[in-house]
Design brief:
Layout lengths: L6 E6 L5 H6 L6 E8 L12 E8 L3 E3 L5 H12 L15 H14 L11 H7 L2 H17 L7 E3 L24 E3 L4 E2 L2 H7 L17 H5 L3 H9 L4 H13 L1 E3 L2 H18 L1
Antiparallel strand pairs: 1-3, 2-3, 4-8, 5-6, 6-7
Helix pairs in contact: 6-8
Length: about 270
């Protein structure tokens, strides 16, 4: 960082030591505000908590909002906070035929040919690995206790229920660079573009053509591994946009006349000393 920017944004996992890595080292040059924020706090039924920060240069910018981190959190949530009214199943937008094709490819890869079984244990035994089947058994035991009111229960079959990482329950789980996400109530797997829908991308023009994601067709044509890496590294659009809007509304540029005057005075004093 060369100090040429007026303002910067940063995003990392909730375990990021923002105070020791950003606030304290940049205290001379920048005012840094931060909070832990996830789309679920904005009414978006998906898990993806992150530390979001913004740094304002002392030279050119002034922070007009609260200075205490707890006050920043309180003011932000009072403005943007919403409770979730839907379950994560709202993001399962891909046509059923897309999942059927995905299942056929999995069957062929594992040496099975012929008709694809209906969703259920028979299908799971044929398309899932032994490790995924073991984890599925554990999640099935937890479904009744952790499902949503409509029965929605998501789980990531590449992670054990007790391991750190994606959570399970009615919300769409946090996306990593790998994972096989299953909604047990309907037996639907999250397809490639469902992952981006959960991140806030308008992947289909049939809902709001004006906001259609222009790269949707290009991204959909990528290999599944590449799509998982992209979506796993991506920020949640609702969360990051709300955070940036909050920061811009509480930031102001210093009067340029004052900046110019200080530079001019400094130059004159230097020449006098010479």
């Amino acid at each position: 960082m060369r100090g040429q920017e007026d303002m910067f944004f940063q995003e990392c996992t909730p375990h990021f030591a923002v105070k020791s890595c950003l606030v304290e080292p940049l205290s001379v040059s920048h005012h840094v505000v931060h909070m832990v924020l996830g789309p679920s706090k904005l009414g978006w039924p998906t898990s993806r908590d992150r530390v979001l920060s913004a740094g304002l240069s002392h030279e050119t910018m002034v922070w007009l909002g609260p200075t205490n981190p707890e006050d920043v959190k309180m003011e932000f949530e009072s403005t943007f906070g919403k409770s979730c009214q839907l379950s994560g199943s709202v993001f399962l937008q891909e046509d059923v035929s897309v999942q059927d094709e995905w299942c056929h490819k999995r069957l062929e890869k594992r040496g099975f040919h012929g008709c694809c079984p209906d969703a259920g244990q028979k299908l799971y035994r044929k398309i899932l690995t032994p490790g995924q089947l073991q984890r599925l058994e554990q999640y099935q035991k937890l479904k009744d206790e952790h499902q949503g009111m409509d029965g929605t229960f998501f789980c990531d079959l590449d992670h054990w229920p007790s391991s750190p990482g994606p959570d399970f329950g009615p919300m769409f789980p946090v996306l990593l660079r790998h994972g096989t996400i299953l909604e047990l109530n309907t037996g639907r797997f999250a397809m490639n573009m469902d992952r981006f829908a959960a991140l806030g991308f308008h992947v289909s023009a049939k809902f709001r053509p004006r906001f259609e994601w222009p790269l949707a067709d290009f991204v959909a044509a990528l290999p599944e591994k590449g799509i998982k890496e992209l979506s796993g590294n991506c920020q949640s659009i609702p969360a990051i946009l709300a955070w940036q809007l909050y920061d811009f509304c509480n930031a102001a540029r210093k009067d340029p006349r004052h900046v110019c005057r200080s530079v001019s005075t400094h130059t004159d004093s230097d020449s006098d000393r010479d």
